[in-house]
Amino acid sequence: MDIASRIDTAIVVVAAGSGTRLGGSAPKAFVGIDEHSILRHCLAGVFDAEQAQVIVVAPASRVGEALAEAEEVAGERRELVTVVPGGATRQESVAAGLKRLLPTVETVLVHDAARALTPGETIDRVARAVRETGRAVVPTLPVVDTLKRVDDDRIVGVVDRAALAAAQTPQGFARDVLLTAYAAASREFTDDAALVQEAGHQVLSVEGSALAFKITTPADLDRARHLVAGSSRAPAVPGRAAGASPAQLPRIGMGTDVHAVGGDGPLRLAGLEWPDEPALSGHSDGDAVAHAIVDALLSAAGLGDIGALFGTDRPEFAGARADVFLAETRRLVEEAGWRIGNVSAQVQARRPIFAPRRAEAQAALSAALGGAPVSVAATTTDGMGFTGSGDGVQAFAVALLVPA
Ligand code: CTP
Ligand code: MG
């Protein structure tokens, strides 16, 4: 018997909002917390909870992406995943999700993708309470702030916070209650529990979770990022970050480059001009040391490589000198949120004799990278290979980037 025919609980995850208040470049659920999106984190919690049908409601343009994310988190439970396009309001998005409930489902949870860090235990607590009581269930937290009633900028009274609670999701319902209430709803409600209560049903409160806060503003996103980066929780399912997030750790990258002897004019190597040495050939000035450093930096930042960024389809870099490549690389790396820690390079060449100008080369390369320390070592290869014969030079570099 397949799993789907035994499922009695469904979770509708609404992720079709645009995230106006967050102001990101993507719809909110597709904004990254670390290397994973808000939706992905939310689904990690959902799949950490007891087995259920999972219906993700996504913006129409993101249905494919949402399905790929959900199936990856679901693993062996992927047959339980459905993704549908949402509507203009949260309520319409929930309604779109409810159309896809499996016939066996009796308990329905509705959850905001924006509550990305909601633990599986909170989800289970809501589902259990619905099954045990038959009531609608809302997870809540006590209100800790002192609340004032205001009239414009004037405080006109206090509100007894003991009588208040902050509502979260997932909110849980008996299937028929929720479907009937949705069918009858003739206006917009702030949440599903309010809609169900309006239809005459009692709603119970169970304990919510501080982690179930909703990511609404950039400050909320920062909070989620800090929590994920500092979490030492083991990943219950692929997707939930554990330990320090990779985005917070330094990153290294390596690069290598080879150029043949044979270009016009003087040799350019390691950011210097070497007047009496034979030039290297290449699309640019053939500075293998600088190019290895560029690759190391791009690799550390996960930005690809020199061919992809400065290849022959970028004619403005034809014949460009090392300092131009390095400065542009630094700009790209910093734009991606990194600061250059240091760079270490080695060149294998028969000529030039490097040591007398090492300090000068290091200073030139460092200046092109905005002052980051650069060290350059040089070696001959004992007469062996193309570097030993003097047919070409080869360079290697390692770069360290630290989060800006
Ligand atoms: N939502 C939805 N469809 C909509 C509007 C909202 O599925 N038409 C979802 C959001 O994706 C979110 C949840 O409902 O997971 C709660 O909504 P909210 O936090 O208000 O998100 P947005 O509407 O995206 O944000 P904003 O109001 O700032 O635009
Ligand atoms: Mg909204």
Set down the secondary structure blueprint.
Elements: E1 9-14, H1 38-48, E2 53-58, H2 63-74, E3 81-85, H3 90-98, E4 107-112, H4 120-133, E5 136-142, E6 147-151, E7 154-159, E8 165-167, E9 171-174, H5 175-184, H6 192-198, E10 203-207, H7 218-230, E11 251-269, E12 272-280, H8 288-301, H9 306-310, H10 322-335, E13 338-348, H11 358-368, E14 374-379, H12 385-389, E15 392-403
Parallel strand pairs: 1-2, 1-4, 2-3, 5-10, 13-14
Antiparallel strand pairs: 4-9, 5-8, 6-7, 11-12, 11-15, 13-15
Cytidine-5'-triphosphate (CTP) binds next to helix 3.
Uncertain runs are 232-246
CATH superfamily of the largest domain: Spore Coat Polysaccharide Biosynthesis Protein SpsA, Chain A
Estimate the mean pLDDT confidence. 91
Q: Could you please say which CATH topology of the largest domain applies here? A: Spore Coat Polysaccharide Biosynthesis Protein SpsA, Chain A
Structural class: alpha/beta
Number of helices: 12
CATH class of the largest domain: Alpha Beta
Number of domains: 2
Task: Record the strand order, biggest sheet.
Answer: 3-2-1-4-9
Give the end-to-end Cα distance, rounded to a whole number of Å.
53 Å
Largest sheet: 5 strands, mixed
Quick structural overview:
Helix content is 31%, strand content 27%. It is α/β, with parallel strands linked by helices and 404 residues long.
What does this structure look like?
By secondary structure, the protein is an alpha/beta fold. The chain folds into two domains: 3-229, Spore Coat Polysaccharide Biosynthesis Protein SpsA, Chain A (Alpha-Beta Complex); 251-403, 2-Layer Sandwich (60s Ribosomal Protein L30, Chain: A). The protein has helices at 38-48, 63-74, 90-98, 120-133, 175-184, 192-198, 218-230, 288-301, 306-310, 322-335, 358-368, 385-389, and strands at 9-14, 53-58, 81-85, 107-112, 136-142, 147-151, 154-159, 165-167, 171-174, 203-207, 251-269, 272-280, 338-348, 374-379, 392-403. The two termini are 53 Å apart. Residues 232-246 have low confidence and may be disordered. The structure holds cytidine-5'-triphosphate and magnesium ion (MG). Cytidine-5'-triphosphate (CTP) is lined by residues 14-22, 28-29, 57, 86-90, 93, 112-114, 214, 216. Cytidine-5'-triphosphate binds at residues 14-22, 28-29, 57, 86-90, 93, 112-114, 214, 216.
